[in-house]
Amino acid sequence: MAEKLITPRGEALLRSGETPWTAYPRPQLRRDSYVNLNGPWEFSAPGYRGTIQVPFCPESQLSGVEMHFPEGCELRYRRKFTLPEGFCRDRVLLHIGAADQIAEIYVNQIKVGDHQGGYESFTLDIAHALQEENELVIICRDDLKDQTFPYGKQVLPEKRGGMWYTPVSGIWQTVWLESVPKTYIQKLNIENRGYSVTVSAEPEMEGVITVPGLGSFPLGSTITPEKPHLWTPEDPYLYRFTVEAGEDRVESYFAIRALEIQTVDGLPRLCLNGKPYFFHGLLDQGYWPEGLLTPPTPESFADDILCMKDLGFNMLRKHIKVEPEEFYYQCDRLGMVVFQDMVNNGDYRFFRDTVLPTVGLQTRSDKKLHKDEATRQGFLEGMAATVNQLKNHPSIVYWTIFNEGWGQFDADAVYEVFKKLDDTRFIDSTSGWFRRKKTDVDSRHVYFKPIRLTAGDKPLVLSEFGGYSCKPEGHVFNTEKTYGYGKFADPGEWNDAVEKLYLEQVVLAYKAGLCAAVYTQVSDIEDETNGLLTYDRKVCKADPARFQNIAKQLK
Questions:
Q1: pLDDT tens digits for range 446-497
Q2: Based on C-alpha coordinates, what's the Rg of the chain?
Q3: CATH dotted code for 274-553
Q4: Closest listed residue to residue 524, CA positions, set 484, 480, 464, 481
Q5: Around 355, how many Cα atoms within 13 Å sit in the side-chain half-sphere?
Q6: DSSP label at 158?
C-alpha cells in the first residue's frame, strides 16, 4: 500500500504557489542575464491534456500530473514568453537542465535543435527564431524498454519495488534563457592539479581572470598561490573570481585541494592535501517523495548536506544519478566530499549481478558482457557528458564507473578512456565486484555478513555496507513491504545496531587500512527504509551524539 509523502519544503512550496526553482542554475558560470521559464506549461500526452509544473516530471506529485505515459510516446510541452526590454544581445541561449531521454525543441514552429540523454544539460542558440511574442515547444520521448540510454534506478511502473524506483520522464530540471555577445565563453575549464589551478575557456579566447586577494592573470594561465587556502570539508574555502573576455563577463569560483595515494605505515591511503584522510560517507541516491529525481526546492540539497554533516559525515556517494549543478555547488560551499557515480545502462539480471556476487562469485571476465555496441557507446557518451559537466566542482574527488556489474563491459579499457577525461581524481572502476586490473582503489560491498577486509596494494574502500531498515510510523511510503538489509522495530534498536556495526567492524577495518566507508543510505526511498532520514525528511532516525562519536573514531 503506497502512501503519499511530502517533505516540509514541498508543503511550503504548495502553500506559497510560487514558481519553483528560480535559483540561478549554473553557479560556476554566472552572468547577469537570466530569464527563468519554470512554472506552468501546457502539457499533452496520450489521453491527457492539461498543465504541468516545470521542472517536475509528470510522474511526480509536484508536477500536478502524477501519471506515467506509454513508453516512447510524445510528451508535448508548450508555453509562450516575451523577453524583457534590453535583454537581447547578439545571441539568446535556451538552456535545459535535463530532459529524459530524447528532446526536440521548437521556437515559433522552427526546429532549433534536439538532444539525446536524460541526465545532462544542453544549450541551443535560438536568436534566429525569436519574435516579439514567442512560443516554445519541447517534445520529449522516453522508452525504458530501450536500454541504450543510461536510466539508473528507474523501472517500468509495474516492476517498481525494492531497490528499483518510480520512473521519470520528460523535463526534470530548470529551463532558462540568457543572452550573450556573438563571441562568448561557452565553457570554463577549471583544473585543480596539486596546489595549482588552471582556468581556461572554450572556445579559446584572450581575457583576464581577476581573483580578489591574489590579483589578475591571463585567461588560460595556471594560478599557484604562495600560501594557498586549501579546501577541506572542515574548511571549504572557495576562491571567487571573474573572467572578462571580449564583450563577455562571467563570475565563477575554484578551490585548491590536492589528491594523491601515499603509502603510510605500510598501507596505501587516500590522501587529501598531503595527509591520509578517512572519507566517512553515505550513499545518496537523490530521490524525493513529491518530486522523484527533483527536490521541491534548491534549498532541499543544503538541508540534506547539513543534516549529514551534523551527524559527522564528510562524504556523499552520489549513486547512479547526476544532480543539478546546485547540488554540487552546495557541496563545494558547505564542505561535503562527493564520490560521483556514472549512470548505468544495459540490462540488469538479478541472479548474475546480485545473487552470485553476494554469495561470493565476485571475479569474472567482462570482455563479453553487454556486447551490444550501441549500448556500450551509449554508456561512454553518457560518461563523457557527466565528467565534462561536473569536473570543475572541487567537492568531487572520486569517480565510480561501474556499480555491481550493472552494464559493465571491458572495465580495464573503460578506465583508460576515463583517465583521458580526468586524471586528477581517484577512479573506482568496479564498485562492489567483478573486479578487473585497472582501478585506483579496491572497492568492496558487504551486506548480510561481517565486514572482514584486508588492505592489499591499492587503497581499500568499503563503497557500500549497512542498509539497516527501520520504519517510523506515519512516515513510510509502503506500509506493507519492507526492503533493507536487517530490520529493526524502532529507532533505539536501529541506533544500537548501527553503532555496533561501526565500532566493532568498521573502526577495526579502518585501523587495518580502510580508507573510506559508505553506509546505505541518506534517506528512505519508496520501499527502501534503510535511510538515516525518512523519505519525507521529517524524522531523523540517527542519534546525533552516537553518530558524532562514531565519526571521532574514524579520524
A1: 998 999 998 999 999 999 999 999 999 999 999 988 898 889 989 999 999 9
A2: 23
A3: 3.20.20.80
A4: 484
A5: 5
A6: G
